[in-house]
From TrEMBL:
Its main location: membrane. It comes from the Bacteria. Pfam families: AI-2E_transport. Belongs to the autoinducer-2 exporter (AI-2E) (TC 2.A.86) family. Keywords: Membrane, Transmembrane, Transmembrane helix. GO terms for cellular component: membrane. It is a multi-pass membrane protein. This is AI-2E family transporter. It is found in: Membrane. The chain crosses the membrane at residues 15-48, 60-85, 146-166, 200-220, 226-255, 267-285, 297-327.
Length: 345
């Protein structure tokens, strides 16, 4: 009778593997709230590794070069974002203080339209509900300050060591990934191209859309055009919502101020001019940087936002592209092995 019992060595192997998987799940589960810090470090590393290499070639020490890069990223990324967010919050708080006046003006303007189109819009607007929603969401955002600080700390901690120990990091990946050298290089190139495409392409598209929208704000007499220019840039980077985040409020402000034709012009300009340039700029820029198909970007962003938050704009398309690349690699490697086996027979 054949012995079907597992050998002690195999049992130990299974036990150790189970411990590794359990530990991995626990670590990943605890790190999930700060996953954006890890992804942010990967993004900044991809963008700045070329600069790191140049500084090392010129004789700078690894620690000094990494410190310069981190300081540079804080100056050109973190501080401007912090100032812009402060500006947006201050404007929103100011707007909520005068929201009743604005909403009443909007209701009066809508009542004038109700007699023409025979629809009741004004009664559906609840000022208290709107104010309550804005206040609750502001408190929620402000309450996440501690998590943001921890995420930034993790991001820069990882970035520092990734820059200093870049060779060791690559060797570690090659050692532990069960893939051949060529496949690892293919994955690294794919990650590099897609991260660059989205990390550079998305802000560039948003900036161009903001400039196009800014011309419209000046043309139709929108108040605070530079503020709405900033909001347009942020909105452009958010899927589905897009530039409507700025165009609709500007249209409503013009409408409640009695500038009906300017409001209509602003709305049409936002839909047909600003909206159209989004597709044109996105296809042109992202194809130039990484030859990334727009459909991969769109589907990837839809998948990535719920998984990774704001950084899903970058890592959603990356996840989808890597999935397709792994299928291609599997077919190439194991398809060849199967063909060789058939030839041997």
């Amino acid at each position: 009778m054949k012995n079907t019992l597992l050998s002690p060595d195999l049992l130990r192997q299974v036990f150790i593997l189970a411990l590794i998987l359990l530990s991995g799940f626990l670590i990943i589960g605890e790190m999930l709230p700060y996953l954006s810090g890890v992804l942010g470090a990967i993004t900044l590393f991809t963008l700045f590794k070329g600069l790191m290499r140049k500084m090392l070639d010129r004789g700078l020490g690894a620690v000094t070069a990494a410190s310069v890069i981190i300081l540079t990223s804080i100056i050109i990324v973190i501080i401007p974002l912090w100032l812009i967010i402060r500006l947006i919050f201050s404007r929103i708080e100011e707007a909520t203080k005068h929201s009743n006046t604005f909403i009443e003006a909007l209701r009066e303007r809508l009542k004038a339209l109700e007699s023409v189109i025979d629809l009741d819009f004004a009664s559906e607007i609840q000022p208290q509900a709107i104010n309550s929603w804005v206040s609750d969401n502001l408190e929620l955002l402000l309450g996440s300050t501690f998590q943001v600080l921890v995420t930034l700390s993790i991001m820069y901690f990882l970035l520092f060591y990734m820059l200093i120990y870049v060779k060791e990091f690559k060797n570690w990946l090659r050692q532990f990934l069960p893939l051949n050298h060529k496949t690892v290089e293919m994955l690294a190139d794919e990650i590099d191209q897609i991260v660059r495409s989205n990390a550079l392409g998305i802000p560039m598209v948003a900036l161009m859309q903001g400039i196009i929208a800014l011309l419209g704000y000046y043309l139709f007499g929108a108040p605070n055009p530079l503020f709405w220019f900033v909001i347009t840039i942020f909105g452009s980077m958010i899927p589905i919502i897009g530039t409507a985040l700025a165009i609709i409020p500007v249209t409503l402000i013009l409408f409640t101020s009695g500038h009906t034709w300017a409001a209509l012009g602003m709305l049409l300009y936002g839909i047909f001019v600003v909206g159209t340039t989004d597709n044109l700029f996105r296809i042109f820029i992202q194809n130039k940087i990484a030859n990334l198909h727009p459909l991969i970007t769109l589907i990837g962003v839809v998948i990535g936002i719920p998984l990774f938050g704001f950084l899903g704009l970058i890592f959603g398309p990356l996840l989808l592209s890597l999935f397709m690349l792994l299928i291609k690699i599997y077919t190439a490697e194991y398809g060849e092995m199967q063909e060789e086996g058939e030839e041997d027979e």
